[in-house]
Amino acid sequence: MPKALVTIFLFASIGAFAQQEQPQVRMNYLNVCTPSAEDQAALKNALAKVSGKPAFAPDFEISRGRATLKDAPVSRFVRLRREFAPESALLTVQYSMSADEKAIIETLVLRVRDPKDFHEIAIEDRVSAGAAAPLVVLSTDTPAARIRVERLGKSSVTLSRCEGADQGDYEPLFRQASELMASYRGNLGLRTTFRSDVSWLTQPKTGQGARK
């Protein structure tokens, strides 16, 4: 076989092998403003599974600090984490509030023991920093603006408030998420036991982040 022909055959074989070995890229697009009926059912199911009066284990963790991110204003945050009793279908709950010069954001994340359908659900709300102080946001039960369900082996499901979109069909989901967030504000003691930690978010910045 001529040398040139051997070379051409070799390059052709390498090219074919490279095409076979090239990994497939799969992209998922999330419709966060108007999720499908199937996604609505997943959100409804997740909210139902984490509803009800929580049964906490005695221990808890709380932290607060200062965060500096690139191209973002400096923020302060407070995080409270609790585990549930062994007999509960829920595993952990984490509440966080962050505040910077632009916005105050509350986030509630609940994780379940059996991740068959989903392994966590996150509920978020936000207000303009100039609209209210953190304690006011806490006391007025700010309504949920975003719901996200994370699933193992599947894409996540998200519903967000979208300005200008017709979201009347999704109001029951937003209402249920808001009620769940409100109940955990009370059950976690955010307005009582941990009130001073939340108020620290807007105290004069002395450079000290430790709890007193």
> Stretches where pLDDT falls below 50 for ≥5 residues?
2-11
Order of helices and strands: HHEEEEEHEEHH
Domain module tally: 1
Any idea what the radius of gyration is?
Answer: 24 Å
Number of discrete helical segments: 5
**E-strand count:** 7
Alpha-beta content class: alpha+beta
Considering DSSP H and I runs of 4 or more, what fraction of the residues is helical? 25-40%
Alpha-carbon distance between the termini? 85 Å
> What's the arrangement of strands in the largest beta sheet?
1-2-3-4-5-6-7
Largest sheet: 7 strands, antiparallel
Shape: globular
Average pLDDT metric: 85
Give the DSSP E fraction (strand runs of 2 or more residues).
Answer: 25-35%
Please explain how this structure is put together.
- The chain has a 7-stranded antiparallel beta sheet with strand order 1-2-3-4-5-6-7, with helices on one face.
- It is 28% helix and 28% strand.
- The chain has one domain.
- The chain contains 5 helices and 7 strands, in the order H-H-E-E-E-E-E-H-E-E-H-H.
- With 212 residues, the protein is an alpha+beta fold.
- The chain is globular, with a radius of gyration of 24 Å.
- The N terminus is likely disordered.
- Helix 2 runs parallel beside helix 4.
Keywords:
212 residues; alpha+beta; 7-stranded antiparallel β-sheet
Summarize it.
By secondary structure, this protein is α+β, with helices and mostly antiparallel strands.
